[in-house]
Amino acid sequence: MKAIFSNWVLKMWAIVFAIALSAYVNTSYQVTETINAPLIIIGLSNDLVIASEIPDTVSIQIRGILANISQLRKSPPNCEMKLASFKVEGLYEDVSVSVPELGGTEVVKGPSPIDIVLKKKIQKTFVVEANRIGSLPADFIEQELSITPESVKVTGAQENIEQVKHAVAEIDLVGSRRNVTRFIEVKLLDENLRLLPMERFTLDSPKVRCDLRVSSLSNVKLLRLFPNIKGEPPENYAFNVEIEPRHIPVPIDYLEGMDVSILNTEPINLTDVKESFKREVEIVYPFEQHELLQQKAVVNVTLVDITSSQEASLNRKIEIIGSTPGVSVLVQPTYIWIGSSEITLLTESERENIRAIVDIEGLEPGEYLIRPQVILDPKVRNASILPLDVKVEIGVGVEDQ
Q: Do 316 and 391 belong to one domain?
């Protein structure tokens, strides 16, 4: 204790001096420092957009007392690039950036001028696609995935908007065993599915809500979904039909007392249709209480005019094998189209040997989507086939068709 209180007068004066020195440094001592300050765009015309890269912050050199410098370091001022006088698109060089008044702090060196490119602003709407990452646990299936809003408006320079081909929301399925809701940032991709720089665009909804409903396989039955095709296009058109999803999970208690293994869509009429299309179609359920189930599917119909490629293509009627007496078989479509430049190398007899076969041996009465076996000549190594799958209805008591 004696050592602590010895020379206490000198120690007290040392403390007073330290306090006075600190006060002097903070309130009187001038220092110079460079800080980064946010860059704010002011007055940009609603018809224009900045198409060049500009920094988020700019450097300014300031001089002042340490207390003020410390405060500005923590809360830097907003520097402004004023563009109200720019009315047309083009390259603008050395656009100045202003610094607001900083009180008693001097701006020694302001931000460097910036070159900017202004382009006419355009807006385009894109449907938000779900990009599933990973997969659900083996004993669970996806029942429904909805995105809200379903589309986003993307604004930017025309040359940038033209690069956008997809707007996607990536949802991670790994380990999901219950229904989840997530707000996910929308990403923009080009035609090669490469991510585009998002700072080039403005989205009316930068994030979308993704609602994922999952079901345990122990509680649901997967029903195969068939597109209900009616009619066929003109004879000189080959077509293929794809549907998404291919299966619909239905709670087992919905099917109590029913023998149901498939579902159909509303009728899709292809009579005299000559152009490809993609659209939503209603799913038809064989029971009334289905409001909580998926209501629509997406059907993608691809049509090909084969008139100009008749020498390099063939239409083959589908042959049914494996049928038994008393069983009726309906196939839709009845023909498939086979296209290949190598077909022109075949003789007439070799062309006749090309066949399309559907084997139904062992199949019970019902509806099936079957991929025909196409037997090609060895000279034909690459071929396009439409459709890839055909609908086969097996019944009892009617002659084969």
A: yes
Q: Is the pLDDT of residue 308 over 80?
A: no
Buried b (16+ CB within 10 A) or exposed e, 151-177: ebebebbeebbebbebbbbebebeebe
66-74 and 8-27 are packed helices; what angle lies between their axes, rounded to 10 degrees? Answer: 60
Same domain, 78 and 145: no
Distance CA 145, CA 153 (A): 21
Give the pTM: 0.47
CB count in 10 Å sphere of residue 209: 14
More confident of the two residues 304 and 202: 202
In a shared domain, residues 318 and 294? no
Give residue-wise pLDDT tens across range 186-235: 999 988 788 999 988 999 999 999 998 887 777 788 888 989 888 888 87
Name the token pair of 278: 């993609």
Tokens of 376: 């090609």
The answer to whether residues 305 and 236 touch, using CB atoms and an 8 Å cutoff, is yes
Domain carrying residue 254:
220-305
Q: Which of 271, 305, 339 is where one domain is finished?
A: 305
CA distances from 195 to 131, 148, 188, 192 (A): 13, 22, 6, 9
Q: β-strands 355-359, 313-321: how paired?
A: parallel
33 DSSP assignment: E
Residue 224 sits in the same domain as residue 298: yes
CA dist., res. 396 & res. 328, Å (int): 6
Beta strands 207-216 and 180-189: pairing type?
Answer: antiparallel
Total domains, the chain: 4
Q: Could you tell me if 219 and 252 are in contact, meaning their C-beta atoms sit under 8 angstroms apart?
A: yes
pLDDT (tens digit per residue) in 95-139: 999 999 887 788 999 999 999 999 888 999 999 998 888 878 877
- Residue 146 maps to a domain: yes
Residues ≥6 apart with Cβ < 8 Å to 339: 238, 304, 306, 309, 312, 313, 314, 383, 384, 385, 386
Cα–Cα distance, 250 to 286 (Å, whole number): 11
